[in-house]
Amino acid sequence: MISLTQIQKLLTDSRPETLEALAKDAQRLTEQNFGRTISLYAPVYLSNYCSSHCTYCGFHSLNKIKRIKLTGEETRKEMTAIHATGIRNILLLTGESYKFTPVSYLKEAAMIAKDFFQGIAIEVHPMQTSEYQELYTTGVDGVTIYQETYDKVRYTEVHISGYKKDYDFRRETPARAAAAGIRQISMGILLGLSDVTRDVYELFCHLREMEKSFPGVEYSLSFPRLRTIKGREFAICDIDDRTFLKILCLTRVLFPRVGLNLSTREHPKLRDHLLGIGITKVSAGSNTAVGGYTLKTIEDQDPQFDTEDKRSVAEIVAMIKSKGFDPVFTDWRPIENKA
Ligand code: SF4
Q1: Which of 98, 111, 131, 227 sits at 20 to 30 Å (Cα–Cα) from 13?
Q2: Straight-line distance from the first to the last Cα atom of the chain, in angstroms, rounded to the nearest whole number
Q3: Would you say the CB of residue 57 lies under 6 angstroms from ligand 1?
């Protein structure tokens, strides 16, 4: 495993040849392990109720936004619109509220999602193993859970109140999801929250730990950078594009078979450039507000964060093809998902 000092050295090395060599290795390993394919997914925000206060998020409990959660009928409407774009992998998102979005609500949403999508992942509050098992038997096959930062002091500063304050419970979440049988687990850190070197190193250690304990799981990593919310800065992300690129390349070199996700937080130009280097999955046509696809006008929306890449799914598909890659809508089809 790479040491903390080695990561630090690499991230502060400004010589162009260092990045060039790293990018070449990353490109070769990505092609070797994933071919020239890029998977696509879209998020659907089901609810913005949240009992936690995280300083960087537009859904936090003290923010005066209109709180809503989709009814079954509204969920179906949103999913119909996403399905029409060709998307077959869906990520169901909520704020973190056990009260407003309990397991029963998530199960209902997953049941509806099964009518439209082959891959169903969730990004919701951390749960117990038995709850993940319930969702797994309903059809959920992926869990996304970011630690945000592994710096415990900083973690406490930015997670002011609510369930998310519990650092240890969150860190153990990927293991609980894996123990429940979840097939795909996505982990990550929010770049800009704390010291990048340490966070990257700790994330790598966490992933290695997971690979050893649960070798059958398909893992992917994400490195979202802090974004504005409705134009307002909550924190400045000082991770420039070169450093960002180095982090992705290094991840690929150390974990050749791990998926790398890139969301619409990033600028289209950068997203296009990164395709050939290490990214294996991108979100497309995303809306980060509850009901944002069909129920609300842009002015009425309260997004979780601002997206940079506003292109439609069709435009993303055309771009992927123009770069010599195959866009993949379905890379998994469940046969039977019963425990
Ligand atoms: S990051 Fe999650 S837990 Fe924190 S305020 Fe946003 S939705 Fe709530």
Answers
A1: 227
A2: 35
A3: yes
